[in-house]
Structures are given as C-alpha cells and as structure tokens.
Amino acid sequence: MIELSAIWRRNAAKRKPVVLVDLSYDDPTRGDSKGYIGLAKAIAAKLDFDMVMIGEGYAKNLENFWLDDGKNLLQSAFKQKGIPAIVLSKRTESGSAKRKTLRRMGTTLFVTDINEQISPSYLNKKSFDGLVAHHLTPDLLKQEGQLFRKHYPDIKGELIAVMISRYCEPEKLAGVLMRATETMEQATIFICTSTRTKQDTYQRLCNSLKKNIAPLGTAEKIHVISYHLNDHRENQYQDADGYNPYIGLIDQTDHIIVHSDSHSILSETLSCGKSVHIYGNGEYSADFSYAEEHGMIDYIHESFNESALKTRKISPVNVTEQIADAIVEKYRKEKQAYDDLKFIRHPLKYIRRKWL
User: Fold this and answer.
1) What b/e readout covers 53-72, taking b as 16+ CB neighbours within 10 angstroms?
2) Paired strand residues for 158
3) Other CB atoms closer than 10 Å to residue 40's CB: what's the count?
4) What does the pLDDT look like over 48-66, one tens digit per residue?
5) What is the fold of 138-300?
6) Angle, CA 269 vertex, CA 326 and CA 222 arms, to 5°
7) 300 alpha-carbon distance from chain centroid
8) Is 312 left (phi over 0), alpha (psi -120 to 50) or beta?
9) Cα angle vertex 322, ends 319, 325, to 5°?
10) Terminus-to-terminus CA distance in the chain, angstroms?
11) Which helix (H) or strand (E) holds 317?
12) Regarding the domain delimited by 4-128+320-355, which CATH topology (the fold level of the hierarchy) does it fall under?
C-alpha cells in the first residue's frame, strides 16, 4: 500500500487544497448532507480550493467505512486530490482514527457537528437559532422553478406547498388547509414529504384532504397534488425520470406551510423570499426564535380560523455564507498557527519548502 505521506508529497505541490465532504454516513437527500454540500461549495469558493465529495449513498452502516472498501474510497480521494485541508463529515465514530491519520500530514480542520449545531458552534451566537446551512442558491431555485412548471403546467389557482416531516398530525392539518382555502377562488395544495416522513402519515393526510373536499363539492375548486420521496427513490413516481419537485416547489409556490420539527426545511424555504407558515408548536417543535422575532414566520395551529393565508415578501435568508466565513476564519487561524510552529521547530527546512 502506498504511504499517505508519499502521496501527499507527490501531489500537494501541483494541486489545489481540498475541501472534502464525506457523505458515506448518511442518506444524501437529508438536510445534513445538503447542508454539508452547501457549506463545502461556499468554503471552496472563498479559499479557491477544490471540493471533493466521497461516498454519496455509499453505506448505511457507519462501520462499513473503515472496512477495506471504505478505506479504498478515502485512499482514492487522497491519491486524486491530496490530503484534505477541511473535512466535513458526521462520522464522529471514526473521528479519532481519521484525525490520527490526517494530522500527521499537516493541519486538517474537521467539521463533524450535525447541521443544527454548526450555526451556534461557528457563529458563536444564538441570534440564528433555528436556521442552518443548505445548498440552495438563487440560480438553483430559478432553474428548478422552471423545471417545476414544465412538470406541472396545469397548476390551478393559488399554490400552497405543504412540507411535512416526521411528527405531523394529518387529520388536524387537513382541517387547517380546508379553512385556509375557503375564500380562494381556486387553490392547489401540493403535499411534499421529506426523508423522515412516514408512509402512513403521508397517506393519512392525502386521505383526510379527499374526505374533506368531497362532501363540500369543492373538487373543482381545491386540487391536491402529492409527492412522496420514497416514490422518487424507487422510481415509481408518475414521471419516468423520477423528478423530485421539492426545490422547484419552493421557488414557485404562493404559500408555504412547514411542520415545526425541521430546521433544514425551514431554512431552505426561507431562502426564496417568502414568509413561511409553521404548523404546530408542541412537543416536537424546533426553536425558530430568530425567524419569529424577525417576522419571517407565522404560526398556525389546529384552531386556525383565518379565511386566508397571509404570506409576505421578505428578504431571502441564507446563513450558509456566514457559517462558511466562520469556518474559513478558523481554518486560516489554525493553518497560521501550524505554520508558525513548523517555522519555530525547523526554520531552514520550512523556509526552503515554502519559498524556494
């Protein structure tokens, strides 16, 4: 086996430093994965580094990464791009082993927090409570919005995006949606799930809406479209290419309702410049205090009796850039401290390598 130090010496001089994203720990569609990807892209752009992703959809079992196949995956990245300057990975179980291996090659900054812990860890303030990093950009939203309209050209009336996560109360939410559409001439309710949405929850919400619509004779007024991520994974969705409407829906919708237990979904939806309606604030609710204090969200509950959803235009919100700036600053400080230490220990050797 080729020694990592030999690979590093041979490749470091001719390649850019690398920001490495390890996705082998997780489902690549989850918010944590997308947050890491968004951060890595922003960090790489700020430092003029290369970005490398490994293990996308590789292993569900965390232990697999450190078996032969997992080592080969990492070794391959090293051979192609060199030892990474920054690593984003939730694989804390293997963190000590990676640090021991990589630290011998120089300073490598590890980001191993889950997504909702990265913001307070690196920004060192609670003012962004509830908001996390993600991969959405204005260009991506616009592109996906155009694709959405191609896939759904017959949207009727006001479009209401209903983003459900894990702990949704389907029957109560269906009642809220019926009251919210009472004064609309026409409305399309688009139910969109996440990786944590149970099939039963999704089905109960769809069935409850149908039961509410039929007796009122409003089938021509209220239209329901539903999409479950499992359909996309299994390629059983009505579109042969397995199109996932999530991002395009965020861009194109008139109103957004998000269940209150997902930091990632809230952060992604706020990036489109519309206020968001949060359903529920009970046992499984996240802390969205920053968004609430700044007028970005409105809470709606089962007792909601408004005849319309009041959505406002807001400035698009995206904390990914601020977090990336903080990580870059930390990396530069650690790199400078490491270089200073090398100079103190081996001044001539350091000068020869750095400038000659």
Assistant:
1) bbbeebbeebebbeeeebee
2) 187
3) 26
4) 998 988 876 544 443 444 4
5) Rossmann fold (3.40.50)
6) 175
7) 24
8) beta
9) 150
10) 31
11) none
12) Rossmann fold (3.40.50)
